[in-house]
Amino acid sequence: MNYYKEALKIINKLASHKPKLLLHSCCAPCSSGCIELLQTYFDTDIYFFNPNIDSLEEYNKRLNEQKRFVQKKSYNIEVIEDAYQPWLFIEISKGLENLPEGSSRCFKCYRLRMEATAKKAKELGYDYFTTTLSVSPHKNADWINKIGFELEELYGVKFLPSDFKKNNGYLRSIEASKQHNLYRQNYCGCMFSKSESN
Fold it and tell me: What is the pLDDT of residues 125-144, one digit of tens each?
């Protein structure tokens, strides 16, 4: 399925008012192109929930960079931050520590973060939720969208399908990172991805 085209179909059907959308963000660079696209059609806020990040120092670095980017661009976007909870990622990774990047451990990590986003979207009354994860060429968009639709059924908040890497979305994130001098990490976030990037 072409998730980028599916998202455009939804966007084109929207009424004149902007629905509220909660965007899960893993970092400022990945969110940059997504926000540019979404803010035209949605009243967008960011949810920063990433228990997979390997240290509190790295977590805060990415969170602060996310806030700086939104402020620098003068976006009318609230960055809703959650506490750093690495034990949640450690728990879902048990028995999967030796698997490579892109394995079922990553699927569980996507779900962990996306489910928290769906719950938060429901709690705060958002119309839609989605995630920046699909902007990366290293992430499995089929998995991300499968999880999103399952969570839509579970929590009753519409999921905006996404494959944000399409239509030069990934390249746009690289350009925006350079343009705004964003901190761009060389690993997804967890200790496993960090060891593979070295």
Answer: 999 999 999 988 778 899 99
